[in-house]
């Protein structure tokens, strides 16, 4: 999964089917020092039928399969019924320690590290 360009038509192996026709992969990250992340991808209906088409991508933070991904995937899935917006690729990225991943570094991280345990 890591390093696959967004426009590829090859689906990475090793994924697990998730709600709404999505697939969840486990990605090991170099930046987060051996921590794994679940990345869930929902492709729009008709994705494989238009190989040259470019799709916008929406990234969902706190988007793990047990977090907010299913809610946003439901909105994306409603598009198949009401055509109210253009098709898109939805990518959910699981967060583990939210404040650590999304907040800027602090001068003295020790008080915050104690909370993570």
From TrEMBL:
To which species is this protein native? Qipengyuania qiaonensis
Query: Which taxonomic lineage does the organism of this UniProt entry have?
Result: Bacteria, Pseudomonadati, Pseudomonadota, Alphaproteobacteria, Sphingomonadales
Bias-annotated ranges (Low complexity): 13-22
InterPro entries in the record, alphabetically? AB_hydrolase_fold, Esterase-like
Q: What is this protein called in UniProt?
A: Esterase family protein
- The coiled-coil segments of this chain are none
Q: Which Pfam families match?
A: Esterase (PF00756)
| Region annotation (Disordered) ranges | 1-22
Q: Classify the source by domain of life.
A: Bacteria
Xref: Gene3D superfamilies: alpha/beta hydrolase
């Amino acid at each position: 999964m890591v390093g696959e360009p967004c426009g590829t038509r090859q689906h990475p192996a090793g994924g697990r089917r998730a709600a709404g026709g999505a697939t969840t992969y486990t990605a090991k990250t170099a930046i987060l020092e051996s921590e794994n992340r679940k990345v869930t991808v929902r492709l729009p209906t008709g994705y494989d039928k238009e190989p040259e088409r470019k799709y916008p991508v929406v990234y969902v933070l706190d988007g793990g399969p047990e977090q907010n991904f299913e809610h946003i995937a439901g909105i994306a899935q409603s598009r198949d019924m009401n055509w109210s917006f253009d098709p898109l690729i939805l990518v959910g990225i699981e967060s583990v320690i939210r404040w650590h991943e999304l907040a800027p570094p602090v001068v003295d991280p020790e008080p915050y590290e104690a909370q993570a345990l």
